[in-house]
Design a protein that fits this description.
Length: 343
Amino acid sequence: MKYLTTSLSAVILTMTLVGSPALAEVPASLEQVAPIAQDKKFAEDREAILAMTGNYKVQFKFTETVAFTEGYEPKEPYLSGAYEIVRVIEDRGDFISLQHILVVGGEKKFPIKHWRQDWRYEPAQVLNFIGGNAWEQRLVSEEDRAGNWSQTVYQVDDAPRYGAVGVWSHENGVSEWLPPAEWRPLPRRDMTKRDDYHAVIAVNRHAITPDGWVHEQDNAKLALDGEPHVLVREVGVNTYVKSEDFPAEIGDEYWTKTAIYWAGVRNIWSGMEASGKPFALTQKGEPDRLYMPLLNLADQVAKEERSADDAIAEAAAVISRETTTDLPPLAARLRESSDKTNY
């Protein structure tokens, strides 16, 4: 596949990176966004989404609970933590994009681009994971999209992870978003260590708390070889607590230097989504051949060793090489034990 790159000027015109690239400006008033913004519920939904921005101490906790496959023993709980900033990088009123950036390390801290979440009001379609490092657009009925928001989550290289449509509620003093169960890829903590399942059936809930927000997950780890079967259920609780105990400016500086490059990368992926064709990564399992070059290009841009336009052009070549719209059957796309091959 060949994808056209976007020139620097076109990227700036097509992506809403207003003012400081580290933090796109939020519209001054909802009246300037769209007539629908007069709706109180819509305004409350937007406020909840935007409340997820800030500087955070994050804890990731996952606990396998109940096994459903004979002989399977739930693994030890997974617990880790980090400092992370969340910034608005685009806001068109009915579309909001939030970028996460980790700030890690000991005395000499450094940034790592993390995941991204895009929110779209009343979406006509949503990008779904279909197994084997592949995705397709699914149409959303008028009934399902009325008054609701989709959340689409993207990986560190802006490749997709999963999407779902859910409703924001603001009852009993709690603002929370809840979608139905959808498939998503393995988390990296398992992708790099396990080969006994192939997808997660996940229900994700985002809720705003007095000191930040929480991402709660009800997961089922699904094996797709042979007859599909659930290995085990898992509960995940990721807490985002506001913190000023780390140098958030390290993350902001990285984004200021690389925002135009990453806007170009997003534009390439958006073109693939807009084509309407299912697409897949050509590497099974952990796609390091994709994300490592793209992250390295960003580092070169940040160090002013390479122009953003030049890096975007090379990123397009990498994405073209590592993706396909010629999808083999699901069974052929699944990773086998220690399988790092292509298809």
